[in-house]
């Protein structure tokens, strides 16, 4: 009996040790970023490094907002990601409704095609996309960027919304239809309220996907005032001496919105239907 | 709340069932087929916007890149000349192409292997019950959700040869005497692989964890009563249950790691040792935007696509059983 207890105790110990290790590997790099971003330059390069800044300063953030185009990049990122979410969500909500509610020949083939395009990587699309955008003269515009983001967000949102609509019982709408409501009213009053959590979660996933993109912006955008955050921050490296305090404060400012969105959807992630909900 | 919705649901189904015969009687069979035809039309109309965007923004560009790969084309000027398969012949004899293919295979091979091992192990741990489990799950998933640029600057700073905290620790613990040049020619591939595993194993963890939660606990109870060890329980109960999702996850991760651009490119940028991690996607990008040879860049993208298609077909052939489950 005693041996059994020891065995059980060591199992617990192992479990908590492993959980602690997992937590540390994921969080330490971010902690280190936060710590560096609040240090004055002399302390950033100090040896041995201090984990908690001795001298907390907002100087890096001040410089980020005043001496770089950070706020412009930030605004661009929000604008482009927001438009991408709007476009993909409207199109994919209607499309997913079609794929789950109407019977027509070729429906499953279309669903299969969407799943296939979900696996296409940006690098395979971006080169011809860039040449085509130049041909029709929309390179270096936010419009081209929204279209490009849509190319990798849409298959993903369609697939997710389809999975989500499948969980809403079709009988509810049929009842509303029988009661004399037309299709549009049935959708607005019966389906939409039930689908809302899924629509919100999918929107946030899409926003994060667009927010994180690097390659399309790098290739399609050449004007500094049109760049989004990932590309803008990458360009901070191009000065002669790398200003790590400044770069870490920029990293903080990109991570905080991502963190807020992540907190709002993480319960969907852990739940079953979120399994297919990520890409990259 | 739940009970009410179940009641509503039942009521609704009864109403639907009762109403069907009337519906047919009233409208007659002729209008029923008309109704079906109308349903087809509405179905097509509602999927049309999505389908048009997918055709225009994905399938057309991919098809166009096949055409582009047969041209000699400058990336910025409109001139183009049809050269047939010349771009492919050029690449066949190009040592850069072969080295980028090799580096790409090394990179994706190691990262996939460790992502799967770590992802499954972490999923098993986070599937157990312990205090603070929800929080730990969220924290562990977070690196996957941040932009790649953030992941890269974090690791470049951690691995900085002079001021990096990793070298400081290794030195303080007496593991090394001289600082390791993590982003130099000798170690940059290792750094990139470690960083990529860190960034992407949460995807594996998430997919496997979602599946683990659906395994009925009774299966384990019975095995525990029989005195099966943890390893045996994993092999005989857990593994058969997660085989299907593992098949899908390995496929997706392989496709995405083999075509991974931003992590590799950003890690190599400015490090001076970028050419030691110049994988196929990076090489395709460079041909297009550093050497302005869009035709060659497109040819590289097409080759990448062809390799993926062949490997996917082989993969499905080799693991037919798992494919059926997944």
Protein architecture, described:
The complex is a heterodimer of chains A (280) and B (326). With 280 residues, chain A is an all-alpha fold. In chain A, helix 1 (2-37) crosses helix 12 and helix 3 (59-67) crosses helix 12 (244-270). Chain A has helices at 2-37, 41-44, 59-67, 70-101, 107-118, 122-135, 142-166, 170-178, 183-212, 215-220, 229-234, 244-270. The model of chain A is unreliable at 272-277 (pLDDT under 50). Chain A has 12 helices and no strands. Residues 1-6 of chain B have low confidence and may be disordered. In chain B, helix 3 crosses helix 7 and helix 11 runs antiparallel to helix 12 (294-318). A two-stranded antiparallel ribbon of chain B has the order 1-2. Chain B has helices spanning 2-68, 86-92, 95-127, 133-145, 148-158, 165-172, 188-212, 217-225, 230-258, 262-268, 280-289, 294-318, 320-325; strands spanning 71-73, 80-82. Chain B has 326 residues and is mainly α. In chain B, a hairpin with a 6-residue loop joins strand 1 (71-73) and strand 2 (80-82). Chain B is 77% helix and 2% strand. At the A-B interface, helix 1, helix 4, helix 5, helix 6 and helix 7 of A face helix 1, helix 3, helix 4, helix 5 and helix 6 of B.
Task: Show the helix and strand layout.
The complex is a heterodimer of chains A (280) and B (326).
Chain A (H helix, E strand, L loop, with lengths): L1 H36 L3 H4 L14 H9 L2 H32 L5 H12 L3 H14 L6 H25 L3 H9 L4 H30 L2 H6 L8 H6 L9 H27 L10
Helix pairs in contact in A: 1-12, 3-12, 4-7, 4-9, 5-7, 6-7, 7-9, 8-9, 9-12
Chain B lengths: L1 H67 L2 E3 L6 E3 L3 H7 L2 H33 L5 H13 L2 H11 L6 H8 L15 H25 L4 H9 L4 H29 L3 H7 L11 H10 L4 H25 L1 H6 L1
Antiparallel strand pairs in B: 1-2
